[in-house]
Backbone:
């Protein structure tokens, strides 16, 4: 049974240049598939991240093994994150687990998590489109993007039924993050 379950020890890290690297989960909800990138620099574009899993265009490379129709290509997908995906865990609870050890903090984790969950005033969840040109750090910097251990991005074919359902869930429209223009030094 142990061989049937694989876990990942991928954790955020900082390289020698001070760049943060994140493990990232890409969810393909229309296919019920998830893929994990072990390490992605926060400065890498979402396009680069998606290109690690998908061919650039139809016929430019083999499709993902689960994409029997060839519908998923970098140039034919939309990428989203979901606001308030998970309750925000208070920093104190995270530090307690590190300082006191996982066993000592385990008793308090349930209470800390329960206390951190908003009740009736829970913020509404919303789908936000992330431009392929955006660096990974852009959605991570948004105040409504709560990272559940590692960033989670949703990938759907552009114009697909899955994208239409997301739009419907949002009340008919989808906001898109704007990639800031950087001026030359």
Residues:
């Amino acid at each position: 049974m142990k061989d049937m379950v694989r876990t990942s020890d991928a954790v955020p890290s900082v390289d020698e240049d001070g760049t943060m690297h994140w493990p990232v989960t890409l969810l393909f909800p229309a296919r019920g598939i998830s893929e994990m990138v072990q390490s992605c620099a926060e400065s890498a574009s979402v396009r680069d991240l998606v290109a690690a899993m998908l061919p650039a265009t139809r016929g430019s490379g083999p499709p993902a093994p689960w994409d029997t129709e060839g519908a998923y290509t970098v140039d034919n997908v939309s990428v989203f994150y979901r606001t308030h995906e998970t309750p925000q865990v208070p920093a104190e609870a995270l530090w307690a687990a590190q300082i006191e050890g996982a066993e000592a903090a385990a008793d308090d984790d349930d209470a800390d998590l329960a206390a951190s969950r908003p009740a009736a005033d829970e913020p509404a969840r919303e789908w936000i489109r992330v431009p392929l040109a955006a660096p990974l750090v852009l959605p991570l910097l948004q105040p409504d993007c709560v990272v559940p251990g590692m960033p989670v991005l949703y990938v759907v074919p552009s114009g697909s039924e899955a994208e239409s359902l997301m739009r419907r869930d949002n009340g008919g429209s989808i906001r898109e993050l704007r990639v800031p223009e950087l001026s030359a030094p």
About this structure: The first strand starts at residue 13 and ends at 14. The two ends are 56 Å apart (CA to CA). Residues 1-7, 102-106, 112-119 have pLDDT under 50 and may be disordered.
